[in-house]
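Workshop exercise sheet. Pairs work together: one partner reads the sequence aloud, the other fills in the structure field after running the prediction. Swap roles for the next sheet.
Pair: D.N. / O.F.
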Amino acid sequence: MPPKSRLGQNFLRDQQAIRRIVAALGDCSDRTVVEIGPGMGAITRELAAKAGKVLALEVDRELAARLSAEFSAGAAGLGDDAQGTKVQIEIADVLSFDFAAASVAAGQRLLVAGNLPYYITSPILQKLAENSDALDRAVLMVQREVADRVMAEPGSRDFGFLSVAVQMHGPVERLFTLPPSAFSPPPEVHSTVFRWRFAPRFRELRVERAPFLKFLRQVFALKRKTLANNLRAAGIEAVVIADAFSDAGIDSKARAEAISVETLAALWRVLNSAGTTSTIEVAPEVD
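Structure field:
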């Protein structure tokens, strides 16, 4: 079955990489694993042998039908009906999937694995972040440049909204990078696999999730501008910004990408206590 470029289909064919991805989930013999975009089933087959249950979300109806036939009871050498039916193929868009309900049905927090389509990687990461209470850990493959942004540290040119938004929901760890030749058809970029352990930091840093993320969108809205300029563009008065920077220990000419998550949280708390965060205008979407 030829891949559909509009769906960003680049099928993983490197068997060693497949085994490493599943192994990176840890012992999942009694766990439910949600696989995002199973495609031709390369990772699904390895999960079928290792996981307690696999729920594979595939938006392509033709691929879903093919996978359903393969993983029907007793198919693919899985043995008896109990083994065969532990793989469930669902025609679904991950962006509308109810992770919370799936977690309740499983009676546990979910594991997630997947080779994410490049064209909707950021929305998928945001979806997982929003459902972090229902998730335990994820092993994901993304475009290398996206992984660089996800795992960037303050002071790096890649550090931005995506870095903080992901890391606020738990630590990330780079595992390995694959060349285009590991896929069929080969993409034009390298791909990186990383592990994300869901452990939100909002309570620890004493910030409110939605207002803080809105604040982050504004402070990273225009990376060429200083943090102070971005906040002024959000409608906060210069004298308020100056006082808040003094309280949070931030240099007046600092840019957001040079500031740690902890310091950004401290700044938000100061501005929030002054009643100014509620006036921040919604910035355009940023990565």
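Discussion prompt: Strands lie at 11-12, 32-36, 53-58, 87-91, 110-115, 135-143, 172-178, 183-184, 191-197. What would you look at next?
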